[in-house]
Amino acid sequence: MTESRSSTRDQLTGTSLARHALEPGSLRLNSPERRQLCQVRGPASMAASKRNLPRRGLSGYSMFAIGIGALLFGCWRMIKWNRQRRRLLIEDLEARIALMPLLLAEKDRRTLQMLRENLEEEAIIMKDVPNWKVGESVFNTTRWVPPLIGELYGLRTSEEVVSVGRGHLWYT
Predict the structure, then answer these.
(1) Per-residue pLDDT at 141
(2) Which residues cross the membrane (predicted)?
(3) 92: alpha, beta or left, given left = phi > 0 and alpha = psi -120 to 50?
(4) pLDDT at residue 120 above 80?
(5) Minimum mean pLDDT among 17-26, 51-60, 67-76, 122-131: which range?
(6) 3-state secondary structure of 70
(7) Where are the alpha helices (DSSP H) in the chain?
(8) Are 18 and 41 contacting, i.e. CB atoms less than 8 angstroms apart?
(9) What is the pTM of this model?
(10) From CA 12, how far away is CA 14, in angstroms rounded?
(11) Which of 40, 88, 124, 130 is most buried (most C-beta within 10 Å)?
């Protein structure tokens, strides 16, 4: 078998040598066929005998440029989103400021209604107590003192207190 190889090696010349050189795995790095191919065709034929490997992807510079571009695009989007979010926040605050007098008036109306109902309950409960003045202030001042939670909800049922604490939402 070694004799046939050596005889084949000596017979390879010209186009058959080039064809043999381009077969995958036919020429090793320091094989006699490769040396003979260089002698017959010159060093330019070595390029033809090299393996044709595909590129492995983008170069380092292009990957770096893509990374910088993605970073800059992300920063630009974040700046744009922060500006939009700030505008929305200002709009929400302006709406809240505009609605604040209405909300305070509703809260005061609810408080006065509860105080009136509490005074009616107090009159019914304390009707048999002598020298009891319904609605008399427990504070020694003439200024308005906002009622405490206990004053508003002291005569209410526990379900009513819970419903007010949850904003009149019932969870099933």
Answers:
(1) 84
(2) 58-79
(3) alpha
(4) yes
(5) 17-26
(6) helix
(7) 2-11, 14-22, 32-41, 44-49, 60-125, 149-153, 158-165
(8) yes
(9) 0.47
(10) 7
(11) 40
Name the one residue in this structure whose structure tokens are 């010209």: 14
Q: How many residues does the chain have?
A: 172
**Which residue ranges make up each domain of the chain?**
7-49, 60-132
Confidence of residue 70 (pLDDT cuts 50, 70, 90): very high
Integer CA distances (angstroms), 47 to 17, 21, 28, 139, in order: 14, 11, 14, 105
Residue keyed to tokens 């419903």? 163
CA nearest 12: which of 24, 1, 29, 27? 27
Task: For 61-81, give one letter per residue: b (16+ CB within 10 A) or e.
Answer: eeeeeeeeeeeeeeeeeeeee
